[in-house]
Amino acid sequence: MSTAPGKMLILTVGCVMALPGSRSGAVSAQSIQIVNDHSVPITTTQTVNVGEHVHLWLRVTPASTAFTKPTWTVSGTHLKDWLTKDAEPVKMSAADYRGGAIHVLWKNTTLPFLPNTVRVQAVVNGTTLTSSARFRVVRAPKPEKYYSDDLLMENHNNWHSVYMFAVTPMRRGDLFLAWHRSQLEYFNSWRKYFGYGPIKSWTPTTAWSTTTGPVERRHPSNPPPVPAFSQRHDLTTLDLTDQQLATPTEGQFDWVTQAQGLGTNSQFVNAGFILTLDAVAQVAGLEPGEPGFTRTGPATMPTWWAPNTGQTARDPWYQFGCPALATPVSDTWTSSCSVTSKRSFDNYTLRELGESIESGIYDVNFQFNYHALGHMATSTDMSNPATSMRDPVFWGWHYWIDSILTSWQATRGVEAKPPLTTYQTPKWSADWTAVDVPFTHRVIAEFVRPANLLVNGSPATTVTDVSLNGTGYIFRFSGFPTPPAGPVVVTLRREINNTIRTNLNDGRPMPTLIVSTFGNPLQPAVRRFTYTRP
Description:
The chain is α+β, with helices and mostly antiparallel strands. It has helices at residues 144-147, 150-162, 173-193, 266-270, 277-284, 316-319, 350-358, 370-378, 392-409, and strands at 15-16, 31-35, 46-49, 54-61, 68-74, 78-79, 81-83, 88-90, 101-106, 116-124, 127-138, 427-428, 434-438, 453-455, 458-459, 462-465, 474-478, 486-493, 495-496, 512-513, 526-533. The strands form six sheets. A five-stranded antiparallel beta sheet has the order 1-2-4-9-6, with no helix packed on it. Helix 3 packs across helix 7 (350-358) and helix 3 crosses helix 9 (392-409). The protein is globular, with a radius of gyration of 27 Å. The model is unreliable at 1-27, 210-261 and 326-333 (pLDDT under 50).
């Protein structure tokens, strides 16, 4: 049995052993196999992708037979996991090779004639049994399938559900830009580690081909021989029942539809993957007579999101005072900000720029925000924050959005230049009850939370801005258990947004991000400092 390239499969190979003293050809009634999560034995060389989560289980036949001392060996460069929130690999420990199951990801591809080998042995009724199988590892297109796991998409869904672009008190355009930049950095770190090139921007007014363009949306088309597998078996999958997205394989990546973008908009495809206003109008269900119904053509970049060259067109979002509850009729709007005239980058703060992109209106007669245009026009996956990250257009679209932030930063001077990092090694107080963390650039103070810092694994419970000159440069963390004499590890993590819920009605954790006032996330994503307390 063979598998399609890129499909996550978990090997199974049966092993039989001759009984001592038996005649040639006789086999033991006992054997061990390696099975997938559907208990499907696979007896041929399997094909998996670099960075793909491969989970293997040991099964003894007959099923009720006990076994001891299970030990695994794996060839090829491999790791235990990839931590998205830290953008770093997790190495295997000795204990990870002992037990009834194993979880690995391969880093490098294999030669066609030299696949990787996985072996397992265990003692069954006093006899050592072994089994082995081979894996061909490839680097297939659409790495989003192997990267965009349930936890990542839940974090994205959580972020947008807390900082809601349509709700005035919760709009945070500054964090909208910075958080998505952070996600792009995470994915680029993964891509670099597993041998992919960096994310390529999708220029929304330029056509591209599905085979040669910057965004590859399609996997090899041959179907898998076994049922689909979850991307991550070590996580509880997000319950999407409340959003009517539940399927018989909920939380799993469907090989045919989701791998290509669920519900891809045919008008978007027929337009050569150009972002067009008529495609948005079609998806939005605009009726004749409604503003925007007759709009056609590419959704070109608004002129007000550009350096000052004397342009005169004004950002309609601020021209009408940031409508709190926008409707198709402009005279029913209520304002949430002062009416201002914004014609170029000169007129925006970071937060104002982000809110214009995420919450604003593309045109007074086409009342959709620019960010939403790319999500609405492309696919059903893209239109829902709980699923959008698994469509490769998401990454190309947000790389394009990020280019607006980059262009704005280029007009703002030295303070806007990356990277934001720690200025010096964090300093301990004399009694080891507090630690001061200085940053190279001013950060948005309200989003530095106690839990961003851990001491020997325990989070701080209090954080105070103790900057010597101005605010947002030095923060004092305290409230953690005072470390005893000996080694002390301080972990500084830029993002707090790593809780997955199994019910969408559960309370949402408040996500946060250490970011400069000009939109640069803290570098690196996680940093560890080691001290020795006398």
